[in-house]
Write a structure and sequence with these properties.
The chain has about 150 residues and is an all-alpha fold. Helix content is about 80%, strand content about 0%.
Length: about 150
């Protein structure tokens, strides 16, 4: 029990929690909230949406910050040394990072208020669907990465 690195464990846990919130939130918004919005009276829909956006944007921004900090910590502290010289591992990790940056951008555009991203918000269903697919792809890549033995493995 003494050989557990509690900082590494905490950062891995925070990374997973932030990913669950971000991907789970996108799944909920796309497949539960969006289809049910027509039940909210038209005159109250904008106010209802703004109340959700304001709360959810804070969750998304905290999740993104945690994913960036914990992800880079985990990668640089643990994975780079453990997978030194493994091109497949690092190529997949690069793909995962690029996909995550795309998810961060789309999520930020969807929960933000900048007029520049109104075209994205106008097609919310399409962009949420893309974010869900990207999020699931990131989770799948993460599972593959965990299955690749490190360079010290026999």
């Amino acid at each position: 029990m003494n050989d557990i690195n509690w900082l590494d464990l905490t950062f891995r846990w925070l990374h997973l929690v932030a990913a669950i919130i971000a991907v789970g939130g996108a799944v909920f918004a796309r497949f539960a909230l969006l289809p049910a919005m027509h039940l909210v009276p038209e005159d109250a829909r904008g106010q209802f949406h703004e109340a959700i956006r304001a709360r959810f944007s804070r969750l998304i921004m905290v999740s993104i910050a945690l994913l960036l900090v914990t992800g880079f910590y985990n990668y640089l502290r643990n994975e780079v040394p453990a997978h030194h010289g493994q091109g497949l591992y690092h190529g997949l990790m690069g793909t995962k990072i690029l996909a995550a940056l795309a998810v961060f951008f789309i999520a930020s555009a969807l929960v933000g208020r900048s007029p520049a991203f109104e075209p994205i918000r106008a097609k919310r269903k399409r962009w949420l669907t893309l974010n869900v697919l990207l999020g699931l792809t990131i989770v799948a890549i993460g599972a593959i990465l965990r299955a690749i033995p490190d360079t010290a493995a026999p």
